[in-house]
Amino acid sequence: MSLSTVDVAKHHVGARAAQRHYSQNLLFVAHVAVILFLGALILYPTLILLDQSVRDDGGNFSLAWYVQAYTSLRNYQAILNTLLISFGAAGCAVVAGTFLAWAVVRTDMPGRRVVELASIVPFISTPLIGALAWILLASPQTGLINQAWRLLGGGAFLDIYSIWGIIFVEVLYETPLVFLLVAGALRSMAPTLEEASLASGAGLFSTTLRVTLPLALPAILAGALLVFILAAEQFAVPAVLGTPAKIRVLTTSIFEAQSVYPARHGLAAALSVTLLAIALGGLWLHQRLLGQRSFTTVSGKSAEPRRLALGALRRPVLGLCLVYLLLAVVLPFTAIFLSSIRTIWTADFRWEQFTLGNYHTVLFAYPGAQRAIVNSLFIAATGATATILLCAFISFLTVRARLPGSKLLDALSMVPMGFPGIVLAVGLLHAWISPPLVLYGTIWILFVAYMTRYIPIGVRAVSASLAQIHPELEESSLASGASWFQTFRHVTLPLLKPGMFAGWALLFVAFTRELSASILLYSPRLEVLSVVVYDMYQEGSFRALSALATVQVLIAIGVLALAKLFTRLDHSAEAQALR
Amino acid sequence: MTVDTTDGLRVERLTKTFAGLHAVDDVSFEAAPGEFVSLLGPSGCGKTTTLRCIAGFEHPDDGRITLGGAALTDTATGVFMPPNRRRFGMVFQSYAVWPHMTVFDNVAYPLTVQGGHSAAAIRERVLAQLDMVGLAGTQDRYPASLSGGQQQRVALARAIVMEPRALLFDEPLSNLDAKLRERMRFELLDIQTRLAVPAVYVTHDQTEAMVMSRKVIVMKDGRIAQSGSPEEIYEQPADRFVADFVGNCNFLDAMVTDATPDACRVRCALGDLQCDLSQTGCNGMSNGQKVLVVIRPERVALADEPFGGGNSFEATVRNRYFLGCCSEYLLDVAGLTVRAQTSTSHILKPGARVHAHVASKDCKIIREC
Lengths: 579, 369
Description:
The structure holds two protein chains of two kinds.
Chain A lengths: L5 H4 L15 H29 L10 H8 L1 H34 L5 H7 L8 H12 L5 H8 L11 H26 L2 H9 L4 H30 L2 H7 L7 H10 L5 H28 L21 H27 L16 H9 L1 H35 L4 H9 L6 H11 L12 H24 L3 H9 L4 H30 L4 H4 L7 H11 L2 H25 L4 H7 L2
Chain B lengths: L8 E10 L2 E11 L4 E5 L6 H9 L6 E6 L2 E5 L4 E2 L2 H4 L1 E4 L11 H12 L4 H14 L15 H14 L4 E5 L7 H18 L3 E5 L2 H7 L2 E6 L2 E6 L1 H6 L4 H6 L4 E10 L3 E6 L2 E6 L13 E6 L4 E4 L8 E11 L4 E7 L2 E7 L10 E6 L5 E3 L3
Parallel strand pairs in B: 3-9, 3-10, 7-8, 8-9
Antiparallel strand pairs in B: 1-2, 1-4, 4-5, 5-6, 10-11, 12-13, 12-15, 13-14, 15-21, 16-20, 17-18, 17-20, 18-19
Helix pairs in contact in B: 3-4, 3-5, 4-5
């Protein structure tokens, strides 16, 4: 078995049931069509990208771009920085996330629910917004913390425009992922495993060290690899925090090579292939790890695990958790919100500085922002709908029908996880810029890019709820004389509806925040939200971008709240979606 | 359907492997119309896979399944009728009642999807069916508001509403509590008798299998270990596995000392025992042959005074367990433990000397290979 539906597929012997009686010709044709479609979405741009990377300007075979990618100091530095940031972020996020998970799930720390809920909040925001918020807080000149420190008589002591600043902001946004994975593993662990250790005479602390954490190790490592991949793929944070300090990473170098005039397509392609190799390598390791153990975070009907009595350490442990929440949630959101309702960014607050003018600007006066809101909502609504339907069908094919080639389909549907947005964008640019199908220059290229990027989210959301539908529910329909199609329509689909709606909401939010592919693919007058926020940053319009970012966050909160209201949207799916 | 069903359901040389492992290995049996057949065995013995092959959820690697002489699955000719065309009523262990449909919709489902029934006819049949399983009045409720037993009745009503050609049960009662389980056994039997169709019932509960079935098929490692009436299985177990799985046993290694066609004398740790072979298929024993003697605990008679004649031995009571209907004694006979069950009110204390007797017809012989 491969990739993420592994836990689902093993779920029940009954899953094998369907094998051949679903194999009516029509279904098989549809199955092949879906595989070909995913192939076109994912493999075709990849091949174009590979091809582009080995051709010189005259179109002849050449490895010159790779030589340049690996030997020129600028690009070589970018690769090193990418690896440094990825390892750094993975290491720090794992420590922070595991600590939070342990504190919330396994100790009697006060305020566990608050810490748990709040640690999900960074997902509501985006790394771009987080990076911008931290500029407002910790840029050497205007950063609020530095300003306040100066007022108290000190000098500037924080510089967010540094490699440490980049790692710091990425860690804030990726810690919740580790938290969710590890918390899930800790929760689903049979309490008897720990009780056996206690019965053997080990204390709670040594049980935690010798039993609890080792058992959670697969989840911890999986979390580390996931963070590694995401950090390598990250465009917004290094673009915003690294560029002023001349810190290059692969994503920003690709963007640069692609957007200078004349564009250096070959170099962009060679760098893209390099980044793709790093990310796919991480993904491969990640999936191998998961293949060994079912790590599903959905479970938890087991008995309440024994909690470690922290005693005098209760408050210090809570204190550490609150520091994370302060840095990841309270400070950035406060900064962005304050910035959006003020005319000027200073540490001395006066009433006349407060205004709603920034909201007026982005909602009514700034045409790009208005268009972006409309465009983003349009793509999100149509794209999420189309994608979730496709994903439901993919899930059904991989989890239930299991026709020949379903492993390939399973693998294909998970590959985009290791496909950096900017790399996908470079591939799509070349793939759909010339006839027969010209998508570049239309909004549909964004549609295709988002759909491709976020197929794994949709498939996971649907597969997770499909796995909870006992195969006997479908088999009893077949035994009642219903065809597979009637079964799908009358039994599977109605039972799947809540899961699909949750998946739709996650996709919707993901679609309204995408930046790293959009930044290369959007065309004038077809802007989307994150692109305009990024443009405003480049113009230095921090007041306007704060207002637009707040709008973006409100849209996300609104849609997710709606989904929560109607379905059992759970945190883990949410987290995976909003990376 | 115009198929002649007088021939019943027949399974021939069924074989199914999963990843090279024989889940079902050369299994053949038949269930006549109105006959209730149980597949009994421990988990992993292949009983459920066999049932799923009959239902059409599994494709066997080899074998043939026919109903009334018409092939449903035949690997030789490539015939395979999908499960939705077999019209077999099936009841699952998990009930598999659809949570998003009302009780009425659940039961009406087979009629709805198969088409050709008017709404009025469907309503009439569904209500009649619900009445039959004792759920009258619940038609507008959702399964979540029903108890486990009620949900299983919904599943049963759904299985019989389409007038199935056979009934298949996959451990349908194992999720119910003991009292309800006992009642449901008779209700299932009652309904099956009324429908007069072949029924195959998978269970790991030997009591259930014996109470309900006319024929019990004991399976082990994908093969049929023994097949026969409940009495035959109990009284004449074919091997140690069957004897042990169906009821409690004392096993004694023994050697034949005096063989005649209808009886034999064996020597074992309890001394010499006379075994009556007239009811068994075991004959043609030869002197010196090693055999296994099987004695059911409830066939060991106990008394304070010596029994006259043979097949008696003296023992020391090691322990006594009260089972309600009877007491189980662990007896010590020359270092060997023998279990005995007796319902006499006279209580023997640990350490007491006691005389035991086993009738020659209750000393079963199994040829150990």
